[in-house]
Design brief:
By secondary structure, the chain is α+β, with helices and mostly antiparallel strands. 18% of the residues lie in helices and 28% in strands. 11% of the residues are buried.
């Protein structure tokens, strides 16, 4: 699923009546304002035993003007929730 208005990702799902074995978010979550709500909604799309595969930026020191231009909202680490610039 491609969503052009990422800020609305928590509330947009043309698949709300379907279940999936795998949902992938490749460098998407950091652009969504409501990341935790988005993850909750993604979880609701999973069938029994379904999995989520997520990739996100990992290092705050890599943050640059380019990230701001791309409307990146957060950088994530394994031991924290998202942290903006």
């Amino acid at each position: 699923m491609w969503i052009s208005e990422l800020e609305h990702a928590p509330t947009i799902s043309p698949f709300s009546n379907k279940k999936f074995d795998l949902v992938c978010l490749f460098d998407v979550l950091e652009h969504v304002e409501e990341d935790l709500q988005t993850l909750s909604n993604v979880r609701a799309l999973l069938g029994d035993g379904g999995r989520v595969l997520i990739t996100v930026p990992a290092y705050q020191w890599l943050w640059s003007a380019h990230d701001e231009f791309l409307h990146q909202k957060a950088v994530y680490r394994a031991d924290t929730q998202g942290e903006g610039s």
